[in-house]
Every structure is written in structure tokens, then in C-alpha cells.
Design brief:
Length: 103
Amino acid sequence: MPSYTFRCGDCREDRQVLTDLATADGLELVCTSCGGSMTRAPVLVVNVIGPATEARRAANDAKAEEIFKPCGHKYQCRCGVRLSKPNPFKQEIKKAHGFVDED
């Protein structure tokens, strides 16, 4: 359950209350300090996007350009994937998909 801040209109005292949003919007409390009316305080949301983010993105792009696979591809490929031994479940998989007749 979310916690909402309620602030007194007279003395600016704060109080945290655990309740749902619908109840918090219509709720009015009595301040324990001065007896004034406490209502839900507005929520301040700040998003900070600065030059550090752009610099980090450029560094990540440069690093991605430097990465090469042994096969020469710059993207994820399966050229380098080789099984060291045969798949023991290959026949069972084929049977499950109907590629091999069951004997």
C-alpha cells in the first residue's frame, strides 16, 4: 500500500499515511500539533536528463562498434555456436514434432 504525505494548512506539519489513492484524495485529517486541517500534499516528480546521459550513450555506441565476433559479424549470430557432442534428445524432439515415424 502506498504512503502519502498529508500537510497541515496552518502550521505546515507533515504526516505520512498508508492508504490507497482513492481514499487519500478524499481524506482530510486533523493536525495533532495545532488542530488545523491536513490534506494530501502534492507529489513532486523530477526527471533529470543531462549531458552525462548523452556522453554515456555515445560511449556505449562506440564500444558496440568495436566489438567483433570471430566470424566478423557485428551482430549476434550463431556462426560460433558448435556442439561439442551430439544432442542426446534429438530423436525425441523429432518424434515430438512428428518428423520421425515411431517404430
